[in-house]
Amino acid sequence: MHFLKWLYPGMKLKRWLLLFSLGVIAASIGLAIVFNYKYVGTVEEAIFRMVYLTTGKYYYAVTTIAGIAIIALGLTIMTLATRQIIHSVISVLIPDGPDRLVEIIFQKRKLNKGPTITVIGGGTGLSVLLRGIKSVTSNITAIVTVADDGGSSGRLREDLGMIPPGDLRNCLVALADTEPLMEKLFQHRFGGDGSLAGHSFGNLFIAAMTEVLGDVEQALKESSKVLAVRGKVLPASVQTVRLKAEMEDGSIVEGESQIPLAGKKIRRIFINPEDAEPVEGALEALREADAVLLGPGSLYTSVLPNLLVHGIAEALRKTPAVKIYICNVMTQPGETDGYSAADHVRALLDHVGPGVIDYVVVNSQEVAPALREVYASQGAFPVVVDAEAIEAMGIKVLKANIISETNLVRHDPLKLSRAIISMVYKLTVNSERMRLLDYYLIGENIKELKDLDD
Asked: Which SUPFAM superfamilies is this protein grouped with (predicted)?
């Protein structure tokens, strides 16, 4: 049913098809005048003779029907001819075919008019959210943590002195509009026992682009072109940042990958250097956003490190955008053991101060007992939603069914994006872009928006 997208509002094609039809009609009338209606009269006379000799009456009714049939035939021929012309052109320009063409036009015409959204976070949770959001708007900026120090990213960080590329790569792939093979290539991880073992191709590609261009921001920009990324991916800072945590017993644990392994309750986290400068593009994205989304993702090792970069939290406080925190569904062993939804919010506010969250999105769906048992064996449990405690902090709560259960409990990209975008449209009230709701957003989460009214 891809052809129906040609008829979507704002595609700017129907008007030209109508103009083409009017042109054909005008040309037909002109030809009739030039030839003094000779041929039109001949056709009409032939119809008259056939009808009169067959029925002896109903001349006017039958000629009207015949005229309508000829018009329909003409329009059908025009449509088929136009379709074949377009197909002949795009078969050369776009080998993937007309379906690909309509997707490109749809993206340029409609997705470019979507809300401007800035997402802050890192890890798997951020890439899940981006996969859903990109189907509604291409005005996306992902601000990604640079505190990762484990795996392939950690090795490249130490060997090349660059910021860790792993979370940046995942976000690029999540926002990409490419062939599945390209996605597999960027996510491919080398095996074996050599020096390449454990590295992903995407990480190496970003590292190589950074060395060639001499600038990680430019490297990400060029990598986005390769993957046909919808939106932008930016690091929170281009400085190498080390994450540290002070535990309840006063001990200090250094390294993003080591903090969850310490097995202690976290009192606070901080970064070194504490005055790490933000990327200017990240500050600009916060200033210009219609909505800023925090998370989902690891509270202390994915979301908060971004806000601790100098200037990020202040820019978030000052932005006129709607600020939404997406709370995790399950607690994370070594980070948020025993945390409720209010505890997650309180930790954010304790670290960066008030004014950075307007709304909290929490899951309202029950986790299946079998999955609860699996997660409990690993020390993870569903996050308790204590909405009253959150609202006591002056922050509103939206409960929605936003998870997908397979062998893991994770946010569902489509459910989450629908809940978030419908919420953004309601709160920002942009009449031009509200029309996008007509054919995408009307779903099960829209009724939840009534809870947001004052």
From this structure: CofD-like (SSF142338)
Q: State the total domains in the chain.
A: 2
Helical H runs in 252-340? 280-288, 304-308, 312-318
Range with lowest mean pLDDT among 107-111, 134-138, 202-206, 289-293: 107-111
The pLDDT value given to residue 418: 85
Indicate the angle between helix axes 59-93 and 14-34, nearest 10 degrees: 130
Task: Tell me the chain's radius of gyration from C-alpha atoms.
Answer: 29
As a residue count, the chain comes to 454
Task: Express each pLDDT in 248-268 by its tens digit.
Answer: 999 999 999 899 999 899 999
- Say yes or no: 142 and 6 in one domain: no
Q: How many CB atoms lie within 10 A of CB 92?
A: 7
Q: Are 178 and 225 in contact (CB under 8 A)?
A: no
Residue after which a domain boundary falls, among 105, 138, 163: 105
Q: Are residues 54 and 89 in the same domain?
A: yes
140-166 pLDDT tens trace:
999 999 988 888 888 888 888 899 998
Q: Is residue 186 a contact partner of residue 224, using CB atoms and an 8 Å limit?
A: no
66: its two tokens = 């015949």
397 neighbors 359 (Cβ within 8 angstroms): yes
Nearest to 419 by CA among 390, 444, 450: 444
Strands 242-247 and 266-272, by their bridges, are: antiparallel
Q: What is the DSSP letter of 334?
A: T
